[in-house]
């Protein structure tokens, strides 16, 4: 009584970023590497698949753009698990930069400005980007130059901790600038 080898994955049409495995490999000839890392040489893909089935493993194309394409005999489930584990680790180690916002007005008082400045500097030291917005209401639109001066003073006080990523620009009724933290060497 002969026992057939059962594969543990779906054999439907591959998606864009999916690996070429077993029957999905359509190349005439492939360079085959066995499970121990030893090169078996160039052979037809059908022969390579048969060698993989005999070893009760899968044939995975690891370099489809090479001449000839390189395929490896391995446990595909274990390979996918390792790839997912690496991707999770990369996501965990990458730092997301968030953009905080400080809102000012053309009529802001000195103390209020200092409180907002202190909070902005704290965000910059933490590595976050900061968007500074001066909002104009009603008749304040006639005195945009006052808001521009307040924004320029605010940015000048932050200058030793940050770089100006986007200079002051009027967007509707709001004057905005974006500051990024200085790169530590």
Automatic annotation (TrEMBL):
One Pfam family in the UniProt entry: IF3_C
UniProt-listed InterPro entries: T_IF-3_C_sf, T_IF-3_N_sf, Translation_initiation_fac3_CS, Translation_initiation_fac_3, Translation_initiation_fac_3_C, Translation_initiation_fac_3_N
Complex formation: Monomer.
GO molecular function, one term: ribosome binding
Residue intervals of the Translation initiation factor 3 N-terminal domain: 21-89
Keyword terms of this UniProt record: Cytoplasm, Initiation factor, Protein biosynthesis
Main location, first listed in the record: cytoplasm
Claim: DNA-binding is one of the keywords in the record: no
One Gene Ontology cellular component annotation held by this UniProt entry: cytosol
GO biological process, one term: ribosome disassembly
Presence of the UniProt keyword Aminoacyl-tRNA synthetase in the record: no
Known role: IF-3 binds to the 30S ribosomal subunit and shifts the equilibrium between 70S ribosomes and their 50S and 30S subunits in favor of the free subunits, thus enhancing the availability of 30S subunits on which protein synthesis initiation begins.
Compartment(s) where it occurs, according to its Swiss-Prot or TrEMBL record: Cytoplasm
Family: Belongs to the IF-3 family.
Organism field: Kandleria vitulina DSM 20405
The protein, known as: Translation initiation factor IF-3
Domain Translation initiation factor 3 C-terminal: 97-182
């Amino acid at each position: 009584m002969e026992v057939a080898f059962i594969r543990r994955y779906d054999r439907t049409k591959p998606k864009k970023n999916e690996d070429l495995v077993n029957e999905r490999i359509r190349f005439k000839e492939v360079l085959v590497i066995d499970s121990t890392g030893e090169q078996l040489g160039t052979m037809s893909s059908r022969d390579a698949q048969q060698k993989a089935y005999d070893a009760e493993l899968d044939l995975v194309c690891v370099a489809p753009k090479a001449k000839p394409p390189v395929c490896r005999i391995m446990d595909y489930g274990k390979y996918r698990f390792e790839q997912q584990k690496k991707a999770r680790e990369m996501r965990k180690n990458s730092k997301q930069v968030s953009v905080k916002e400080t809102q000012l007005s053309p009529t802001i008082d000195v103390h209020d400005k200092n409180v907002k400045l202190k909070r902005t500097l704290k965000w910059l030291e933490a590595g976050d980007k900061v968007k500074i917005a001066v909002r104009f209401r009603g008749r304040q639109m006639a005195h945009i130059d006052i808001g521009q001066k307040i924004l320029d003073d605010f940015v000048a006080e932050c200058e030793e901790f940050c770089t100006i990523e986007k200079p002051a620009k009027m967007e509707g009724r709001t004057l905005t600038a974006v500051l990024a933290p200085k790169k530590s060497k």
